[in-house]
Every structure is written in structure tokens, then in C-alpha cells.
Specification:
Blueprint (H helix, E strand, L loop, with lengths): L5 H4 L12 H4 L4 H8 L5 E4 L6 H12 L2 E6 L5 H14 L2 E6 L6 H12 L3 E7 L3 H4 L2 H4 L3 E4 L5 H13 L9 E4 L1 H10 L4 H13 L8 E4 L1 H8 L11 H15 L3 H13 L3 H16 L4 H17 L5 H13 L5 H14 L60 H18 L1
Parallel strand pairs: 1-4, 1-5, 2-3, 3-4, 6-7
Helix pairs in contact: 5-6, 9-10, 9-11, 10-11, 10-12, 11-12, 13-14, 13-15, 14-17, 15-16, 16-17
């Protein structure tokens, strides 16, 4: 038992013990409903590593008392599948957790399909790949597909605190005094990967000598060493993590290259590539937007390059794009436009879709007036014809207000003005 990693020992044995994924296992949600009704069907769970795919499978088995077997589609053989199938014939049903299900080859797949069809094997496939692309349609059609989300910092902290108190499977036999910044760093630096957080915590506890009273003290420096990432700050609540992210975006928005590079450097030193990637894409589309659409595309390309090559070299494409975004013309017209439209909707300003725009691709649509009198723009000069598109209550609404901060947006603004002039005529 002691040789098994903490993350393995702390796997839930019941559906109610699962940390996170409340959109699937919370009260009234789909997987919880399946378990409560004992109406399990094959499923594919996909998402980043360490977020609970295997935990959900083992918890389902523990909650339903079905036999539970684990195999790997890449390394286990067809014979291993045959053994599971024979067991299913004798016991009635077996839950098969099949890791890396996207690596299932055709002979294994052909053997497995009839057993999925008759329900003897309840497949829970796990993959980090997009199943709509990576998994064979024959398998996909016989399973429900559920996307798992990275765990929040609070969820990871809760799981670590549970492990520290659990004397049978966790670290409860040790007297551990962990500083709040250290606990926060374990939760944050692992980017939603609970397995990594728990195993790093165990390393910290077991590799730190207790003091004269037998207490193991875990400060921030120990957590930094065990996850091999520096914290951005030693402040108690960890607010500076978000402060630095905010400062990066505001420095780019304010066209201050040197400040933006400074804050980028702090995030690089913390090893926060996922955070950097997400924030830079937000910056590109929120703050540069239509003023320079090419910069938005270059941001995506730079992030892909950074993710592929990893640190330390990832700093090079990241620096390139931060400089590019800083010195680019800026426009927030797109976010302002969509927020204005959403604000109207939330305030009840909506209305019926005009009849001539409604779907007409079904029998009887014309009798209901659906799609009647719709004017097909491509049949008119300039591919434009005057007709109402917004609901009656909003027919004069105007959301888009060009900023005129870049050549591309100027072209769009000119086209927008020309169309509005035609409407007035």
C-alpha cells in the first residue's frame, strides 16, 4: 500500500466522493442519474490529464458494485479483452476502464463492439484527445461522450486537505503543518491536475524532516521545489498571481512594451504557460481585435509554437507576440458590440425571429409563412438587398460602433456606413 502514490490511494470509491466535475456527477446530473438508477451505458471521458477520468470510473464501479477492470488500449492485448469478456459472461456485466481509448486498433475494436452492443461490457473510455476526431465512429456511436474540466484551485485544495486528514489512505498518520501559501501553490502550479498536486504534496511531506516535536512543516519554498515551479509571490492570499496577469493585459492595452515584457517574464519564471496562452489570446481578440486581425492569427500561431517547444525556448515566440500586440493599433469594438447585444437580451429586449428568416426546410413550412418572401442577397447587385433581419422590437438597434484605429477596421466601417445609408434610403 505504501508504495502506491497518494493520488492512487485517494481515488474515490463512491460517486459522492468525486472532487469536481459537478456538471456530470453533481445531484441531478447525467452520470449521477445513471448510477442512482443503475442504468449505466458505455461512455467516453475526455479532458486533460489528472482531472478525474479514472476516479469517475472507479467511483461508478464502487457505487454500483459491478466488477471493475482496467486496461490500456495501447499496451494491453486482444487476449486481455477476451478475459474481461469471459468474466462478463459469468458475472453478467463488467465495467471496463479503457485508458487511451483513442489508441484502440481495429482487431481489438471489432472484438469489443458486440460486447458493448449487448451491454455485457460497460466501457468507460478515457482519453486526452478530442473523441470526435480521434476515436473511431463505430466506438463513438456506442458510447456517450462527456468532457471533463480542469479542477479549480479550491477543488484541488479541498482534495489535498482531505488527503492530509485521511489516516488510512492519505497522510493523516503524519503531523503536517502546511503554510497556506504552500498549499495554494500546490493547487495553482499544477494547472488543474489533481494527480500531480497530490503526488507533489506527498513528496513534500515524506521528504521533509520533522522538527523536535515530530511536526513536518511545509513552507512555500518546499512546495516550489516539489512542483518545480516558482511562485509569483510570497503573499498570503496569492493575489499577486492574478495581479501580474492583470498587469500584463493592461500593459499591452496601454502599448507599454517594457512593462508587458516584465510581467510576461514573471509569468514565465512561474512556468505558467497555460495561463500565458489563455491571457494572450484574450488580449488579442479583446484589445486588438478588428484593428489588426492578423495579430490575432499570429497570437494563435505563437502560442501553438510555445506549447510545442516548451520552456525555456517558449519564451521566444511569447516575447515576439507580446511586442507585436503592444505596438499594434487597438480596438475594442467587437467586445463592446457583443456585450451590448447580450445586455439587451438579458434585459428582455428580444422578440420573434421575422417569419421570412425562419427555417423553411421542412414540409409545411410555407403554409406557416416560414421563409416566405425571403430575399436571397446573392441574387441582387452587390450581394445586398434591403430587408429586415432583427426582431420588430429591435429593428433599429445598433451595436457595432467602429473605432477607426486600423486600416482593416476602417474598411469594415466604410462598408457598414454604406449599408446603413442604403437602409435609410
Amino acid at each position: 500500500m505504501t508504495n502506491k502514490p497518494l493520488a492512487f490511494r485517494m481515488r474515490p470509491t463512491h460517486i459522492d466522493e468525486i472532487v469536481g466535475q459537478s456538471h456530470l456527477v453533481g445531484e441531478g446530473k447525467i452520470i449521477k442519474r445513471m448510477v442512482d438508477a443503475r442504468m449505466l451505458s458505455s461512455m467516453i471521458l475526455y479532458g486533460p490529464p489528472g482531472i478525474g477520468k479514472t476516479s469517475i470510473a472507479s467511483a461508478i464501479a464502487g457505487s454500483t458494485k459491478y466488477a471493475f477492470r482496467m486496461l490500456n488500449a495501447a499496451t494491453d492485448s486482444k487476449k486481455d479483452l477476451q478475459i474481461v469478456a469471459e468474466e462478463a459472461k459469468m458475472s453478467g456485466s463488467v465495467i471496463l476502464m479503457l485508458d487511451e481509448v483513442h489508441r484502440l486498433d481495429k482487431p481489438k475494436q471489432d472484438f469489443l463492439l458486440p460486447h458493448l452492443e449487448n451491454g455485457r461490457i460497460i466501457l468507460i473510455g478515457a482519453t486526452t484527445e478530442n473523441p470526435y476526431i480521434a476515436i473511431n465512429p463505430a466506438v463513438r456511436s456506442r458510447a456517450q461522450i462527456f468532457e471533463l474540466k480542469p479542477l479549480s484551485i479550491e477543488e484541488i485544495k479541498m482534495a489535498m486537505e482531505r488527503a492530509l486528514k485521511d489516516a488510512s489512505n492519505g497522510l493523516g498518520e503524519y503531523q503536517v503543518d502546511i503554510d497556506e501559501p504552500a498549499l495554494l501553490h500546490f493547487a495553482r502550479a499544477t494547472n488543474g491536475d489533481l494527480r500531480s498536486a497530490l503526488n507533489s504534496l506527498e513528496l513534500a511531506v515524506k521528504s521533509t524532516r520533522p522538527d523536535s516535536e515530530g511536526v513536518i512543516h511545509i513552507p512555500l519554498e518546499v512546495s516550489e521545489e516539489c512542483v518545480q515551479r516558482k511562485a509569483l509571490t510570497h503573499d498570503k492570499d496569492g493575489d499577486a498571481h492574478y495581479d501580474v496577469i492583470s498587469a500584463l493585459q493592461k500593459s499591452v492595452r496601454g502599448s507599454d512594451v517594457n512593462a508587458a515584457l516584465h510581467y510576461l517574464g514573471r509569468l514565465i519564471e512561474a512556468g505558467d504557460l497555460p495561463i500565458i496562452a489563455r491571457r494572450l489570446m484574450v488580449i488579442a481578440y479583446e484589445d486588438i481585435g478588428l484593428a489588426n486581425p492578423g495579430a490575432c492569427s499570429r497570437t494563435v500561431t505563437a502560442i501553438q509554437a510555445a506549447e510545442r517547444i516548451g520552456f525555456p525556448e517558449a519564451r521566444i515566440p511569447l516575447a515576439n507576440i507580446v511586442i507585436d500586440l503592444c505596438l499594434s493599433p487597438k480596438s475594442n469594438s467587437s467586445i463592446s458590440a457583443i456585450d451590448a447585444a447580450i445586455n439587451d437580451i438579458r434585459n428582455g429586449k428580444s422578440g420573434d425571429v421575422p417569419d421570412h428568416l425562419k427555417d423553411s426546410h421542412y414540409s409545411g413550412a410555407s403554409k406557416l409563412g416560414r421563409g416566405v418572401d425571403y430575399k436571397y442577397p446573392h441574387s441582387y447587385p452587390g450581394a445586398w438587398v434591403d430587408q429586415q433581419y432583427l426582431p420588430d422590437k429591435l429593428k433599429n438597434a445598433r451595436y457595432f460602433d467602429p473605432n477607426h484605429t486600423g486600416k482593416y477596421e476602417d474598411v469594415l466601417a466604410a462598408q457598414y456606413d454604406a449599408i446603413n445609408k442604403k437602409k435609410k434610403k
